[in-house]
Specification:
single chain; alpha+beta; Glycosyltransferase; five-stranded mixed sheet; four-stranded antiparallel sheet; 37% helix; 15% strand
């Protein structure tokens, strides 16, 4: 207040997300004009070769730019630009996204997929957000080579900051307080899920299993549903931010450890509204991919309960078995997880196994099809900077986990 106008390049992403929503759902002309002027200003002030023109930023716009690197700054806007282009077909938006992408592929998202703290930066949500943004751009432009770069990072560098359940350390600094080493961020987890969904849609069959495991074992358990532990703060002078704090946080997402809401030795529990936005956005993307019905037939991708005008799916996690009932005729494809014995699938009449999918060419409408597999139990170890954490999985859901005596845990103790 009362000082020079400061803007944070890291927040260009959030600003463009907001403008895109106003344009898409309210047809807001002011938002459209502001978005186009924002893109034009970036084109004027940023070059893929020389970076930002800080002098012009100060003299022409009165801005004191922050010192973010590309990944934690401008590159975060790629995903919102893709969404904005889908809504408006703005050539300027797509052109800017492509120019930023080309710069990223030079030395950031490289062929071997490595993670480099000096290049990617310590803010891991920026890294995962740019990863998912590049996947969205590759899907939009239908350039398979760009997706291979995303996949290389997903399979390699991402492992330096995440675990198999989709937990991602909030900051990857080497000098941080040990109390933060178990603290993650659901925005980051959501980015992994959304990237996995895109990779699978473009031919790599294994990534739907990643998405389901992450959903069942980290993202959904970390949603704040029980609010009994939240004490109401004093409510002087009707300050709105202190009103109904517990009820307003129900359903929120935050910064969990793999085992619970409150990481060991952390100074507190946080549920930020910007994290809620990321978590809910990922829920929406995954909901679209639970089942699909297209020219190739019915596809059961994630093994959740789902009931549409084309199909009804009963999940093996909430029923005695996985069961599918077609409501419209068509071939049926059901994803078979890697932990299922494929030989069991040969018991299904008229079925064959194709690329880890059960394929049924002509199943009658309205006839329930039950698939004979168990949710097998296996144990894995999460290797974190702070400690190893033992986990027992049942199917792709956590059955029990070491919780180190923590409070507000998600699972039974292992």
């Amino acid at each position: 207040m009362n000082g020079p106008l400061v803007y944070f390049r890291t927040h260009l992403r959030e600003g463009m997300h907001a403008l895109c929503a106003l344009v898409a759902f309210r047809q807001d002309e002011r938002a459209h004009d502001l978005a186009e002027r924002c893109i034009a200003a970036i084109d004027e002030l940023w070059s893929a070769d020389t970076g930002w023109d800080n002098e012009t930023s100060k003299t022409r716009y009165g801005l004191e730019p922050d010192e973010n690197a590309l990944v934690s700054g401008l590159a975060r806007i790629i995903g919102p630009l893709v969404n904005y282009f889908r809504v408006t077909r703005s050539p300027c938006a797509l052109g800017l996204a492509l120019r930023i992408k080309e710069r990223l592929l030079l030395d950031t998202f490289v062929e071997d997929g490595r993670y480099d703290l000096d290049i990617h930066g310590a803010h891991t949500h920026s890294t995962t957000g740019v990863m998912s943004s590049l996947a969205q751009l590759a899907e939009l432009t239908r350039v398979h080579a760009r997706l291979t770069r995303v996949r290389a990072f997903y399979d390699n560098g991402l492992k330096d900051i995440s675990d198999p359940l989709g937990w991602v350390i909030e900051t990857s600094r080497d000098d941080q307080n040990p109390g933060y080493l178990d603290r993650g961020e659901i925005n980051n987890t959501g980015d992994i899920v959304e990237t996995a969904l895109i990779l699978r849609r473009h031919g790599w069959t294994e990534y739907f299993e990643d998405a389901e495991r992450i959903f069942r074992s980290h993202l959904l358990p970390s949603q704040r549903r029980d609010i009994d532990f939240i004490e109401a703060p004093p409510f002087p002078d009707n300050v709105d931010r202190l009103r109904d704090v517990a009820a307003r946080h129900q359903g929120a997402f935050g910064f969990p450890a793999p085992y619970g809401h409150e990481p060991i030795c952390a100074p507190g529990v946080k549920f930020n509204m910007d994290i809620v936005v990321g978590g809910v956005g990922t829920l929406c993307e995954a909901y679209r991919d639970l089942v699909r019905f297209d020219e190739t037939g019915h596809h059961v991708n994630l093994l959740f309960d789902r009931h549409t005008d084309a199909i009804k799916v009963a999940s093996p996690y909430s029923h005695a078995c996985l069961a599918v009932t077609l409501k419209q005729p068509g071939t049926l494809w059901v994803r078979i997880p890697s932990w299922v014995d494929v030989e069991q699938m040969h018991q299904v009449p008229g079925a064959q196994v194709v690329d880890r999918h059960l394929f049924v060419g002509d199943h009658p409408v309205a006839q329930r099809l039950e698939l004979p597999f168990e949710l097998t139990t296996r144990e894995i170890t999460l290797h974190h900077r702070s400690r190893d954490i033992g986990v027992r999985l049942r199917g792709d859901a956590v059955d029990a986990m070491q919780n180190l005596g923590a409070d507000l845990t998600f699972f039974p103790a292992l």
